[in-house]
Amino acid sequence: MAASSASAQTRSLSGAVSSYAPASEHPTPAWEARVGAGFANPGGRESGLANLGADLLSPRILPPGDRIAAAFIPRFNLGSSLNLNGTRYAYAGATWTFDVSKDVFIEASLAAALNDGKTGFVVPQNRLDLGCNTGTRQAAAVGVRLSDRWSLVTTLEHFSSAGCSDKAGGSGSGPANISARLGYTF
Is pLDDT of 44 > 80? Predict the structure, then answer.
C-alpha cells in the first residue's frame, strides 16, 4: 500500500488537471448592481448637469464555455439615468460583456427606454426637445475588476428617440451621458 501511494505521488498530472484543488469552491457570482454619477449631455442642451445612474444586471441565461462564447450571451439589465435638472429615463434590455483580460472588460448594451423629457410645441431653450417619451438606450463601457466582487465601470450612454423627430418638432436627439459606476457582484 505504501508503494502504491508513493507511485501515485510521483506520477505527473496531465496539463488539463490542476495539482491544486481548493477545499471549497465559491459559487459563481450571478447578479450585479452598479451605482454611480457623471455628467449629462456634455456640450449640448442640459450639459454639465449632475447625473446619477444605477443598473441591475442578471446572470447570463446560459453559462459560457469560454470567454469568446460569453461575449455573445447577454445579461439582462434594468436601470435608470437620473439627470438632476433635466431628462431622466428608465430602461430594460440586454448587455454583452467581453473579457479583455482577467481584470479588464468591455460592454455594449441595448435597451428599450422611457423618459420624462420635454415634448410638444413649447420646450424651454435649455432643455432637449425629444419629440416623444419612448425610445432606446445604447451604451458602451470599459470596466476594471477591483476584486472578485467589486468593479469600476466607465459608461457612455445615449437615449435615442429616433422616429419621434416628426412629432411636435422633436429632434430625436436625446441625452448622452458619461459616468463612472461602482459595481458589486453577488
Answer: no
Whether the predicted pLDDT of 55 surpasses 70: yes
Closest to 109 in 3D by CA, of 88, 87, 79, 130 = 79
| Three-state secondary-structure class, residue 36 | strand
CA distance 82 to 116: 10
Per-residue model confidence (pLDDT) at position 7 = 47
- What's the grid cell of residue 66? 469560454
Give this prediction's pTM: 0.75
What are residue 124's phi and psi, to 5 degrees? -55, 150
Determine the Cα–Cα distance for residues 111 and 68; give it in Å rounded to an integer.
Answer: 22
Do residues 66 and 60 touch, judged by C-beta distance below 8 A?
Answer: no
| Residue carrying C-alpha cell 430594460 | 92
Amino acid letter, residue 70: A
- List the end-to-end C-alpha distance of the chain, in Å, as a whole number: 46
